[in-house]
Design a protein that fits this description.
disordered C terminus; 0% strand; 15 helices; mainly alpha
Length: 460
């Protein structure tokens, strides 16, 4: 992390993170597969709940950025006392915020479904699924924070193994909980939610047990779980902008869906298919961004600013070149890629291929932005990433999509062109902001702290 070839360090961190993210995305695929056997109303019940769940997760998961950033800098500084203190305090923050959101969600769930005009045949299943998943936010946020702590410490294999085990377990217990088996009653749609809740709870339990044993470079001690309100406020200020960032993106996606829906079923289907492909493209970029954040953060904590700069440059180059090559391949194979999802609908294939080809050559710019966002987070500049997200979604993309599709009379193509133009403008803005980054003031470590009395761990 602090010495040796940078490329190898990035690769060792990024690959397990990418695989773990891919595995976690299979939770919804597994649920969709089995729930689909219950019929259209059951699928609709799950589908209508997903945007609400995603928004709740976005609101809370931003705090994991604070955990990862602070842990990385203290690990880089070899300050074991503060590393353990940070772990306890950010976990408290995650648990407290999740319980608050759970209480709010249980009260708001029926009101949100009514606001969405959910049909009577779907309402009961949707409410059950939503309330169970919101009830498990403490497990979801807790395990997300455990993963963030491990990333900050440079340990990315253990979370991968835990995710792999729980995904397999989820696939095994989904059918009996949904359809019933022996003494287990059939819970229907709620069974899928119960399966996810149980596996997420198990994942968090394993993570906390490993932290308590102190085998992963961080020791979760009881005294670290006593609230340090000043530190919690500091972590909240660092993490809250990331929550706003993710929420802004989630709401922006929903607003784009409303614009797309005005152009009919074919356009909605094409947009959905290409969005699924874009989600797969973003996963490796996100993994590299997370690895960059951990690596840059540790080197900032160690005072190795020039090495941190070098990591930022190399990560940006890798992301830009790698995703540009993916973009070329996507452009050439666009009809075939869309046809994987809708093999028997030529109109959707043609519309989706046109969208994919319009955006494909800017994939590299997406990677560049995400790598530099990882650098901003490592430096504690979460307000910067929040502002970039707000500008991207609400100042550029949505107004541009509306103007090009309506006022400029480009129709559906105007929607598609909003994506590459946004990527181009945001890459330029992100690079300009990065050029202004004050590397001499990126350390988040205070000169002293009550928990900062232990000896620093020896150089490893």
């Amino acid at each position: 992390m602090l010495e040796g070839p940078i490329f190898g360090s990035l690769l060792k961190l990024a690959l397990p993170i990418i695989v773990a993210n891919l595995l976690q995305s299979t939770y919804q695929l597994i649920d969709a597969f089995w729930v689909g056997r219950l019929g259209g109303d059951a699928v609709a019940a799950v589908s209508i709940s997903l945007p609400i769940n995603f928004l709740a997760f976005a609101l809370g998961s931003g705090f994991s950025v604070a955990g990862s950033t602070l842990i990385a800098q203290y690990v880089g500084a070899r300050n074991r006392a503060m590393t353990d203190h940070v772990a306890g305090q950010v976990l408290l923050l995650a648990f407290g915020f999740s319980l608050l959101l759970t209480a709010l969600g249980q009260w708001a769930a029926p009101r949100m479904l009514t606001l969405l005009s959910v049909e009577p045949g779907v309402y009961d299943d949707a409410l059950a699924f939503l309330r169970i998943t919101l009830g498990g936010l403490v497990f979801t946020f807790g395990f997300a924070m455990f993963q963030a702590l491990m990333r900050g410490a440079g340990e990315v294999r253990i979370p991968l193994y835990i995710v792999l085990g729980t995904v397999v377990l989820n696939a095994l217990i989904d059918p009996p909980l949904i359809f019933g088996w022996g003494p287990i009653p059939a819970f229907g749609v709620a069974g899928a939610a119960f399966a996810t809740l149980l596996t997420q709870g198990l994942a968090l339990g394993i993570g906390l047990w490993l932290l308590a044993r102190g085998k992963l470079g961080i020791v979760l001690r009881l005294r670290a779980l006593r609230p340090d309100w000043a530190f919690i406020a500091r972590a909240f200020r660092l993490g809250f902008p990331s929550s706003v960032e993710l929420s802004a993106r989630a709401l922006g996606m929903n607003a784009m869906v409303l614009m797309v829906a005005a152009f009919g079923t074919v356009t909605i289907a094409a947009y959905g298919v290409v969005n699924s492909l874009l989600a797969l493209v973003i996963i490796p970029a996100l993994g590299l961004s997370m690895a960059t954040s951990a690596l840059v953060g540790q080197n900032i904590g160690a005072g190795q600013i020039e090495r941190a700069r070098s990591i930022a440059r190399l990560s940006s180059v890798i992301a830009f070149i790698g995703l540009s090559l993916v973009g070329v391949a996507a452009f050439l194979a666009a009809p075939s890629l869309v046809a994987v999802f809708v093999p028997d609908d030529p109109e959707v294939i043609a519309t989706g291929a046109r969208f994919l080809r319009t955006v494909a050559f800017t994939f590299g710019l997406i990677g560049l932005q995400m790598s530099l966002s990882g650098v901003f987070r490592a430096a504690g500049q979460t307000v910067v990433t929040m502002n970039l997200a707000l500008v991207s979604q609400w100042v550029i993309q949505l107004p541009l999509a509306w103007f090009l599709s309506r006022e400029a009379a480009f129709g559906v193509d105007g929607l598609w062109w909003a994506f590459p133009l946004t990527n181009l403008l945001m890459a330029a803005i992100t690079m300009l902001w990065y050029a202004r980054l004050d590397w001499q003031r990126v350390s988040l470590l205070p000169s002293s702290h009550p928990a900062d009395q232990g000896a620093r761990s020896p150089r490893r």
